[in-house]
Design a protein that fits this description.
This protein is of the alpha+beta class and 286 residues long. It has a single domain, classed as Beta Barrel (Porin). The chain contains 6 helices and 14 strands. The strands form 2 sheets. The protein has a 12-stranded antiparallel β-sheet. Strands 3-4 form a two-stranded antiparallel ribbon. Helix 2 runs antiparallel to helix 5. The chain is globular.
Length: 286
């Protein structure tokens, strides 16, 4: 396990300060603002502290409300909306300076048998012969300003490999889809809740990128502003994130300075274990 993954897993160690009230004090992750995946994962962990062990997350619906401040603590407030016979519902707010920076509703369910079907995983290249994103960044590091190199080459907690080729330094018009293989840079603990939290953390990587692809801009474009507005994730079954997982994303539409994307998350064997959806700000300034 490298230091980046170790630090990411430490994000999940929240401190209980009162009944249904938790806090995080430490070094957050992200660039310019706290990474949305961090807040989502921490809210899921906070919600899990208040439900029975036999109940597992099956849906996560959330809104990004304000940018998170790296230098301040985060308070997580859990509201016990409902405890039913099979389902449990929680609302979790992440708070800084007395204001919510993020809000989500999480539903948990006892696992049970039922009718079952799934669509097939698309026939695309496996991860074995693909270059990692970090290797692609190293290939062009001589073209990057020295001030940006620490961020450009930083150690990642997740190894990612793109199925569709992409020039990181050249803005070009691309189809509105993206397929990414993902795997942690080390072995995770046995607790499935940690696997779910890390998968939720990673699900915020690339969804908005699928909506950006057709418009000849990217995150490095000076006049382009982007940010996640909301995020939804459904968990369909057990999660083991110690192996390669595919996040297959596509964007049906972008309009009114917003881009919309959907994603399907498969195991390497082709089992659909989660689905995602996100709408994000896509604003181009004159």
């Amino acid at each position: 396990m490298n230091s980046a993954l170790k630090h990411t897993l430490e994000l999940f160690n929240l401190t209980r300060i009162d009944r249904d009230l938790y806090s995080w004090t430490g070094k957050s992750v992200g660039f310019q603002r706290i990474f949305g995946g961090q807040i989502m994962a921490q809210c899921l962990i906070a919600g899990y502290q208040t439900v029975e062990k036999a109940r597992w997350v099956h849906s996560f619906h959330s809104y990004f409300l304000r940018p998170g401040n790296f230098e301040q603590n985060i308070i997580f407030e859990v509201d016990r909306i409902r405890d039913g016979k099979s389902f449990t519902t929680r609302r979790v707010n992440a708070i800084q300076n007395g204001e919510a920076i993020f809000s989500c509703s999480i539903s948990f369910q006892k696992r049970e048998k039922g009718l079952s079907h799934q669509i097939k995983m698309p026939k695309i290249a496996g991860p074995e012969n693909l270059k990692s994103d970090l290797d692609l960044r190293k290939d062009v590091q001589k073209k990057i300003p020295k001030d940006y190199l620490p961020m450009w080459l930083r150690e990642r907690e997740i190894e990612t490999r793109q199925v569709e080729p992409m020039d990181l330094l050249k803005v070009e018009k691309l189809p509105p889809y993206r397929s990414t293989w993902m795997k942690p840079t080390g072995k995770l603990p046995k607790d499935e809740r940690i696997h779910q939290a890390l998968l939720l953390y990673c699900s915020d990587m690339g969804l908005l990128g699928a909506a950006v692809n057709p418009h000849e801009v990217n995150f490095m474009s000076k006049k382009f502003q982007s940010a996640s507005l909301d995020h939804v994730m459904w968990f369909h079954g057990k999660v083991n994130f110690n192996n390669w997982i595919l996040h297959h994303m596509h964007s049906p539409i972008s309009q009114n300075a917003r881009g919309f994307s959907r994603g399907s998350i498969y195991t390497k064997a082709g089992k659909l274990i989660a689905s995602t959806a996100q709408e994000g700000l896509m604003r181009v300034w004159d």
